[in-house]
Amino acid sequence: MSIRIGVDTGGTFTDVVLVDEESGRVVTTKTPSTPANPADGFMAGVHKVLETHGGSRDLDAVAALVHGTTVATNQLLEDRPDGTAHLGFVTTEGFESVLEIARQSVPDGYGNSYFWVKPPRIVPVHRVRAVGGRLDHLGREVRPFDEEQAAAAARWFRERGVTAIGVCFLHSYANPAHERRMREVLEREHPEAVVSLSSDVLREYREYERSVTTLVDAAVKPIMRRYIENLSERLGRPFSVMKSNGGVLSAAEVVHQPITTVLSGPAAGALGAALVAGAAGHPSAITLDGGGTSTDVAVVVDGEPSLTTEGRIGRYPCKIPMIDIVTVGAGGGSIAWVSPEGTLKVGPRSAGADPGPICYGAGGAEVTVTDAHVFLGRVPPHLLGGEIRLDVAAARAGVEALAARLGLTPERCATGILEISAFNQSNAIRQITVQRGLDVRDFPLVAFGGSGPLLACRLIDVLGLPAAIIPPDPGNVSAFGLLTVDVKNDYVRTHVTREPSPRALGEILAGLEAEAADALGREGFAEHVYARSADLRYYGQAYEVRVPAPDGPVDEAWLAVVTDRFHAEHERLYGYGYRDDPRHAVEWVNLRVSGIGPITRPKLARRPYQVDEPSPVGTRDVYYERWGRTVVYRRDDLGAGAVVRGPAVVEEYGSTLPVHPGFTATMDDYGNLVVVSDDR
Predict the structure, then answer these.
(1) Might you report a single GO cellular component term (predicted)?
(2) What is the pLDDT of residue 329?
(3) Please, which pLDDT band fits residue 539 given cuts at 50, 70 and 90?
(4) Residue 569 main-chain phi, psi, to 5 deg
(5) Which partner from 101, 109, 336, 372 sits 20 to 30 angstroms from 660, CA to CA?
(6) Cα(674)–Cα(680) distance, rounded to whole angstroms?
(7) What predicted TM-score, i.e. pTM, was given to this entire model?
(8) Distance CA 75, CA 59 (A)
(9) CB neighbour list of residue 168: distance below 8 Å, 6 or more residues apart
(10) Intrachain domains 3-76+226-261 and 487-597 with the same fold
């Protein structure tokens, strides 16, 4: 059993990678996604890659199967009116309006909120129930839990068919006793309800964020459980699911904490790209995962993608640890449309996999980014090595009709679509770099995903990037990333103090590590690795800075090391610190532990060196600045050292790289195409 398989379900295609650890062979494939039942596309992809590898569909030879999916959160991301219709909320008496009040903040771009309309809450006020009882910030009981009110709330939900319930009581991060009693009442009075407790989901203070995070977990639990059960039944074997924090977890455990999978696929892509970039000698890079529906952007610094606990799912804040990813609706299926003012817009609405772009010939009637590429000749008249034939004439007719509405030539319309898409992607890159205090010009771009490489040359120009790295099989990097990650669970405990006691902190960390050890033991790991961190701030500040904390016993020297790291990180982030100013005390806020079960990562193979000049496989008419007969290369024919000068097109099974005039692509030792501008 030396075979490991990674399956990443995207909006348009399901990507599959098989690694045979015994022979070192890597097999990649893609199959169309099946939005109506994602499990169909999953099973089709697994069977297809097994047949390609050895002609057998037998899953008994598979040692591990890892899945990346966004099934859990699609209903929230798409803002469907019925997405949270089954959801209810239980909170402390007197705090029924916590969701309505929120943070009283207004999104950027709305000035003084004059024109901003507050979006609907995840749970409307009429589905919020309050229960008496009160704890203080240290977890001490101020008023006893009101059993009668709790039972009345449970019956109220049962009578109205509310089947998913989030429970968040004040200060339950310090003491979960009242929440656990509420769960017991719900199990007795409303046994068919799915329940999420904030003390299980996020044991950290800030009531609004903890409430919403808990409700998102409750909202996606039913659909995630159905999906996992369906897939488990069809597979007939255990499998693992990618988490947003850069680790994996068994499917049996994931159903109890589905919120941890919210950025499952994009997280795998960032990790796979980090491994590729590191092997190529670039420990720091920007990763861009271009799919059919969206583009996901992250930053890798010194080999590790940046992490955050300030992420969002759609409009909902979620404070679970996740890889810091910015998503923009700019994928191959993004639809071009005309605004009421008569201007051209692209996305965020997508044609997806069904019906897909016009060129798919499956009923799509609106021009997409892919149709623009096809019309301009930058994408071949087929996908997946000929498995999917494209209707070039239909794409041309669609572009011409849209161009006529805008009063443009078809070429100007198509290039305008691609230009808007490139600027949407570049804005996402600026958000993840410039707005985080990083200089975008210091980072090469790792462009992958089916549509990721298509705009690489334009992004180099727009952002002044030093290079773009196109990995082998770019459409399957996310699926490959699934096979590079450890099992990982995160645990947090709020402990606010300006006078930290080594004994108290040591006990909290020991408790968190015991929780991590228990979870890793259930996953079958005898070897455990723990990564500690702490959130600190200067007294009076509203938000904290996270720093790594050392292993070993917690004593005064340990406290000094963490405090020193906080001063240094605060100065790096904000340009100032109060290391030697006793007027600004340091306040400890949260302690964190990540429990890690390490795996053996696949090794990247080196490409043989190519002595001869690469030979094109043909030519076709391609539009860059003008129409011209352009050489086409097959990527499989290129060895290390091969140089492709634009204008040209490099084609492969899952993606295409248009090399614009004034750009050069060189293949490195690991099969990556490194694209640079001739002007730099």
Answers:
(1) cytosol
(2) 80
(3) very high
(4) -70, -40
(5) 336
(6) 13
(7) 0.83
(8) 31
(9) 89, 90, 91, 98, 179, 197, 198, 207, 210, 211, 214, 215
(10) no
Q: Which residues contact 114 (CB under 8 A, 6 or more apart)?
A: none
- CATH code: domain 3-76+226-261 is 3.30.420.40
Is residue 260 within 8 Å of residue 249, measured between CB atoms?
yes
One-character DSSP codes across 316-338:
EEE-S-EE--EEES-STTEEEEE
Domains of the chain, by residue range, sit at 3-76+226-261, 77-225, 487-597, 618-677
pLDDT average, residue stretch 41-58: 85
Selected from 3.30.1490, 3.90.1690, 3.40.50, 2.40.50, the CATH number assigned to the domain covering 487-597 reads 3.30.1490
- Tracing tokens 């051209």 back to the chain, one arrives at 344
Residue 298 CA to residue 263 CA, distance in Å, equals 12
DSSP secondary structure string for all residues of 572-621: HHHS---TT-TTS-EEEEEEEEEEEE--PPPPPPPPPBP-SPP--SEEEE
CA 24 to chain centre: 28
Residue 28: partners with Cβ closer than 8 Å, 6 or more residues away? 15, 16, 17, 18, 49, 473, 475, 476, 479, 480, 653, 654
Q: Identity (one letter) of the amino acid at 223?
A: I
Q: Side-chain half-sphere of 659: how many Cα atoms within 13 Å? A: 28
pLDDT digit string (tens) for 198-249? 999 999 888 999 999 999 999 888 888 888 999 999 998 889 999 888 888 8
At residue 261, what are phi and psi to the nearest 5 degrees?
A: -105, 15
CA distances from 328 to 92, 242, 335, 428, 476 (A): 37, 21, 13, 7, 20
